[in-house]
Structure formats: C-alpha cells, structure tokens
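Encode chain A's predicted structure.
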Amino acid sequence: MAAEVHPTAVVHEGTVLGEGVQVLEYAVVGKQPVLSARSTAKREPLPPAELAEGAVVSTGAVVFAGTTIGARTIVGDQACVRERCAIDDDVVVGRGALVENDTTVGARTKIQANAYVTAYSTLEEDVFIAPCVVTTNDNFMGRTEARHELVKGPTIRRGARVGGGAVICPGVEIGEEAFVGAGAVVTKDVPPRMVAVGVPAQTIRPVPDDELL
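Encoded structure for chain A:
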C-alpha cells in the first residue's frame, strides 16, 4: 500500500514516506524551521523528514525537516514535532501536543493532548505523559549567556508515568518505572520505582509491584 497524502496536505520536497503512511487534511511534513533573529536554535541545513511504514500525521499537524517518525506512530490533530527529533515506533503524540527540537522519544511512549515536551529532552520506551504536562530546559529563563551551555530538558526513563498538569524542571531525571502525581512540580530527580507528589514534589512510597511493566 503506497503512502496516502490528502490533497490539502503539504509534503515538502525530499520527504521520505514509507508504505502505508497517511498525511491527512492540512498537515505539513518536512517543513524547514523559520527562526527569529534572536533564536539560539541551531541553523545548519536539515535533511528531509522521514516517516516509517504506517505512520500517521493527522489533520493540521506539522512535522519538521530533520525529524524521523517511527513505524505506526501517530502525530495527532494539530500536534507538532520540531526539527532533529527521533520518534520511535508505536508512539502516540496526542492532539495539540508539542515536541520541541532535538528530542528523543522511545517506542510505545504516549504523549497525551496538549503536553509540552521541551527541546533537548529524552523520553525512553513505554513512558506515559498525561495531558497538559509541561517540561522545561532553561533555569535562567532566557537571561545570561551562561545558560547556553546549561540548557537541558528532562530525562524520563523507561516505563515512567507523569500525571496531568505536572511541571518537570530543567535537567531533572525521572527514574525507570517512577510515578509523578498530577499537578506535581518536580525540581529534583525522582528515583526509580518511586511515587512523587506535591509542590515541590517529594517521594512518598514505592510503586506497587503489580503496576510495574
């Protein structure tokens, strides 16, 4: 089965579409970034976007150049995946979610509606990101030149879960199979297989054995 591209979609020259890929109404794939004069993002030429077999770019979604989308991954309605991202197989990027540049997302991870995954983040396999989660990567919030060497998104290890509306601060590591409660503000690392809740988040108990992968 060849790729299916809706007549209203835009697929930029050179984009690689695998067998059975669907690019739906008004989606844009392979877009080159347009940066402001003050942007600190990298400006080198980007290779074409690549979508593996069975991937879906839903209505109004945007996938930038330099990004790879794995097999059977779905980029939901009005979602966006920026440049130089590597999205593995069977991932869900929910409606309105944004995955910023230079981010890696492991297989079978679910990023739910309106979540924000900041640049330079790592999400391993089988991670769950609930709706409206916010991740951050700049402790200086745009001030001082020193920040350029220190910008880093969170690392969320295999099987970790982050509850709705949680905020993950720059450079924090969420351990394997950890659980972050809804609305938590995570300012420091969460150990593997621990539950963390509150503002600021504190670990309160281990994740039960019957909830582990």
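The mean pLDDT is 95.
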